[in-house]
Amino acid sequence: xxxxxxxATDWDRFFSGRTIPADEVRSLVRDLSEKRRHEDVIACLEAxxxxxxxxxxxxxxxxxxxQIVGRPPADVERVLLSSQDVVAQDVDSLLFLGSHLVRLxxxxxxxxxxxxxxxxxxxxxEPYELALQPSARTQKPDLxxxxxxxxxxxxxxxxxxxxxxxxxxxxxxxxxxLAAMGDPLNATRLEQTFRQALxxxxxxxxxxxxxxxxxxxxxxxxxxxxxxxxxxxxxGGVFLHDGFGPRPENCFEHYVCPxxxxxxxRVVIRHAYxxxxxxxxxxxxxxxxxxxxxxxxxxxxxxxxxPSEVRFALPGGRREQPGEAGGxxxxxxAQRGSAAMVSRQLHAAARVQSQTSAGGVTPAVGGGAVGxxxxxxxxxxxxTLTATATVSADRRYVRINARPVFSxxxxxxxxxxxx
Length: 419
Fold this sequence. Notes:
Elements: H1 8-15, H2 22-34, H3 38-50, H4 57-69, H5 73-82, H6 91-103, H7 107-120, H8 126-137, H9 141-154, H10 160-180, H11 184-198, E1 200-207, E2 213-219, E3 225-226, E4 238-242, E5 252-257, E6 263-273, E7 280-289, E8 295-302, E9 308-314, H12 331-359, E10 382-391, E11 398-407
Antiparallel strand pairs: 1-5, 1-7, 2-3, 2-6, 4-5, 6-9, 7-8, 10-11
Helix pairs in contact: 1-3, 3-4, 4-5, 6-7, 6-8, 7-8, 8-9, 8-10, 9-10, 9-11, 10-11
């Protein structure tokens, strides 16, 4: 392919009146980058955009090339923000865009992009985590309050304690700075916002000893059930840990609901398998955790063949409407939960049928019956890894996006259709 000269008008003539194949444009830009003709890369991509021959990768390469030649940061920022019109409006793309803006020193604009990402998935903690340092650098208490409160409310990962220590230091520093500047109102507001985000309406922890496993289910007032199969609910519940023996440090299950519906909660405990020391477990229910009104109630649970149940009331729940379920949980987790629910229903139907056959009683319509329409699909067993790589225009950096999926076929049931 013949490469035009440096003037932008030559590149406009190059793209006018015809459509250049995407692979040829990509190859041309790569050759220009290898020859360090970054001004030509900029002129070529700008002409392609003007001609309407836009590809999502062009904005990233254009921004990097403009950075290399020393274009004004405002121009680079404008290119990155323009990519939102072409790049898919998903959380990952917005987080990547925000990181570019942070490298350009555009902290306030980056926080705005992170806030846009959080509106798409409010329960995902990464937007708040990435926005924490930029929002602190802006010296704006409202931005820091948003990121700090979001991180405290939605980050339930293994690094939660570490991140909260960093967040606490940033909030304390901002509060001290505001107080020194004679702004006690914003200082108090920031401190209260962060403290309220740390509060949890209810937390439930089940502990035991032995080689066995216990399963915990929390039935929330809105009708939702939080468990290992459904770790995030519309009622705000989060299932944090699914433990099993024999290691003592792993023999616990933990549920938390930062913003909970008021009403009655039902805790169901099932003995899944194995030996439990003394056939007993300890259940700890904490209301208003992290506040001066925190109160704990302990129960000694005696395990038996039937599930144990504990009910408690939460009159002071702060949730008024359902939130977003799912978080970042993978689809195979949701599929396993659905399969478990169908399995339980089929087993319940079988029990009803056997009881009625033995006793000669015909149940009413709908009494324990299940209607199930099979869906034929392929099942994968093992680990599937999908990876994509993006090379920067100067060929110095490679961004790899890896998406592993862990799946396992646990049970197979065979049956035949009766005509």
